[in-house]
Amino acid sequence: MGMARDSCLARVTAGVAIGGAVGGAVGAVYGTYEAIRYKVPGLLKIRYIGQTTLGSAAVFGLFLGAGSLIHCGKSY
What we know:
Largest sheet: none
Radius of gyration: 17 Å
Distance between the termini: 18 Å
Strand content: under 5%
Number of strands: 0
Order of helices and strands: HH
Helix content: over 70%
Mean pLDDT: 91
């Protein structure tokens, strides 16, 4: 039972990490696009892109981690 729990924790952790990386990349691209599109002034661009990147990474990491947790209990 202990081995299965460690394996599940490792899978969820990997899911959160991969989700955060993919979400961060998508958020950075989207944030840059929106900052240019809406003509965000000066240094506020960096803040806006950062907020979009972190928000997207957190949401995508959360969902991919939750999906990994749900998938952990299933055996095929």
